[in-house]
């Protein structure tokens, strides 16, 4: 009769919630599924039923040299943003957790700002600075923009992990004769691994897909989203369905790998 | 699923005459979680107005039983009956029962007074009346000055009293308490034990109390149900449980030590595996083990001629425990006896006892507990 | 409070200060150069004036005056606010039950469902906006289905290039953003407190309104602030899916830095956006503190 009796949620409520959840997931996933489906359709029209299937759009995709260059650029940028944000973010998080200094409160409050403020403005701000010093726009400038935007993610994740950290293991290490520096490397840092890997993956994915900050900071070399953006401005081509399907599949794969890594931690 | 048409919530403003029910009956209640049987065909009665404790170690089913009375778990079979009315399927908010949770479960976003008032605000009690009753209850638990504080500003003991007040202000017929004193330090626990007992007696509400601490159970309860593996091993008054444990499990649980194996029965008593013959007070059936409390063992003269109910051994260890001295004596078959002897008696001896000395211990017949191997007391 | 663990207990204040400085110095410097100063530049630019293709650096409030006085810009700001507001409300309406289900009903498949909510979050914003363009467009899925079912003869235009399509797309993007913080808040609730509420006589609905909802406020505020702030400053959705009336403030800013070449004015607009976002965040934290 009943799977689990829960006085908190009467059966009518449970049914309504289940329905709402199913609808929500349908809302989230049906468009993606439609996209994936049409990426295999031979026709360039989005009409049901699909007459014939082909990999035509994927071929077109793979033949697009510009696209591949921009994808490569995105990988380059994302791969540089990750170490950059980690090197900057981990010490900052540790400092926030353990040190006290004037203005700390403002930093704590303000650290999230780059995430909330529309990326456009962050990109804009950097553009003004770069123009002033006559720095040429390039993938390098894009990476800097991304790092500002992604730094809060690393800081908050690592900080949260530090808050729930058991200090006594560090004290034990010091007690056993390790210097603070060695304790940091051999005790503290390994325990931050999960937070660091998690935020590294997140930063990679977010940097790879980033649009607003990149918008003003791109030079002659495009990132993948910028390339897609210009494709979209020109008009809709089904090759975009293929890109979408591929990137979603890649994201899922990356997530699965990430989860596997994290669960081993 | 049958709904209760008649609501069982207590009438507000019932005044101080609270002897209006609170009898709980469990009829063949069983609850399993997957493969694990938490409560196994349990049947017993709790009388209205009594303080009954469910005593046992974790996993014995006491908390599950409590939750079924409260309505948070549904029995797989059997009935929970309150004052003659079956409660099957009745949700917690319709039962005249309130619970004090082990974690206190105070609402962090409300003040102490708002917490206590919560149950009253859900019924049609007028505001001034709510305020009066909340203040009276807070006064009773000694927290009137903390009425506007938030729970996180309070100590563990204070939070515990808020949880108690919050439950009692609703004048339930039955109060369920799930190890409420577990997180308190020893001194506070002892104070609260007495306080809870006083409150229960003066209000006349049925208290169903869950704990693993046998001393606590002995201090507070009118009756104790010792539980193990989902079943009741013994249900009785504290003195019943303490003096006459029904089986070895209960005996061990309430702190009986000194179990000695029996080789054979002899007229009037038993012969121990160790060799000595002992007389026992009541004889019935086959005896496989005898036990005696450390406090009941007496130090006998080493002279074996004056030996009724004595055993001989070597002193293995002496431990000073403050109010008594504990002697650990090894018998000739390697079994050990632990005896608590008053330091005064030891001091009266001509020579102090040393480890390794030969001693004789007297085991008075009336203090011997007899058990058979099928788990029952004979 | 224990800073001693890493910095060494008896080595004196000096070494501790140096260590601390080395630790957070570089990141703070980085932020100073690439965050604080650039934002400062925007502020400064906003008070200047564009003089044809040069920038006249005389301090004046002309840009701000223009924003306030010109109904066009007021309209755009209002547009952005209303879109962001609608997106927030609808994302909440979809996201809260989802978070609730995940926290209280889905015991066995919780991990999987959580995973499924995170996935859309990590896929490209751009592509997710694109999917709705192709679904809602003239030759898109909705229209072709309607025609195939015989409900309409010709493609219907009402689905695309209006506020509906912009809001729908942004809701689609922000539902996971809103769901996850709410789920985090709900997960922190102890089961005991909820049972205590039931025990004291509160029905499930009452328990929800008086205990669950108030205690999930931090998650609601976090998610909604995020959704509002990011929708407010978005330019992707209005560009791809909005009509001429759906121009949002981000689009205007872009044009100021592009064709219109009025960087000071664009900067002033950016500051206005910044102030509004800060305002929303402040309101949010006020609500949370209560």
Task: Please summarize the sheet with the most strands of chain A.
Answer: none
Mind telling me the C-alpha Rg of chain B? Answer: 25 Å
Outline the biggest β-sheet of chain B: 6 strands, mixed
Q: Oligomeric form of this entry? A: heterotrimer
The helix-strand sequence of chain B is EEEHEEEHHHEHEHEEHHEEEEEEEEHEE
Keywords summarizing the entry:
A: mainly alpha; MetI-like fold; 2 domains; C: 290 residues; mainly alpha; two-stranded antiparallel ribbon
What does this protein look like?
The complex is a heterotrimer of chains A (about 260), B (about 375) and C (about 290). With about 260 residues, chain A is mostly helical. Chain A has 2 domains: about 10-55, no CATH class; about 65-265, MetI-like fold, CATH 1.10.3720. Helices cover about 75% and strands about 0% of the residues of chain A. In chain A, helix 3 packs across helix 12, helix 6 crosses helix 7 and helix 10 packs antiparallel against helix 13 (about 240-265). The mean pLDDT of chain A is about 85. Chain B has 2 domains: about 25-250, Rossmann fold (3-Layer(aba) Sandwich); about 255-370, RNA polymerase II/Efflux pump adaptor protein, barrel-sandwich hybrid domain (OB fold (Dihydrolipoamide Acetyltransferase, E2P)), CATH 2.40.50.100. Chain B is built from 9 helices and 20 strands. In chain B, the strands form 4 sheets. A 6-stranded mixed β-sheet of chain B has the order 6-7-8-3-9-10, sandwiched between helices. Chain B has a 5-stranded antiparallel β-sheet with strand order 13-12-11-14-20, with no helix packed on it. Chain C is an all-alpha fold and about 290 residues long. Chain C folds into 2 domains: about 5-45; about 60-290, Orthogonal Bundle (MetI-like fold), CATH 1.10.3720.10. Chain C is built from 14 helices and 2 strands; from the N terminus they run ααββαααααααααααα. Chain C has helices spanning about 5, 10-45, 60-70, 70-105, 110-120, 125-135, 140-150, 165-190, 190-200, 205-215, 215-230, 235-240, 250-255, 265-290; strands at about 50, 55. In chain C, strands 1-2 form a two-stranded antiparallel sheet. The two termini of chain C are about 25 Å apart. The chains are: A mainly alpha (about 260), B alpha+beta (about 375), C mainly alpha (about 290). At the A-B interface, loops of A face loops of B.
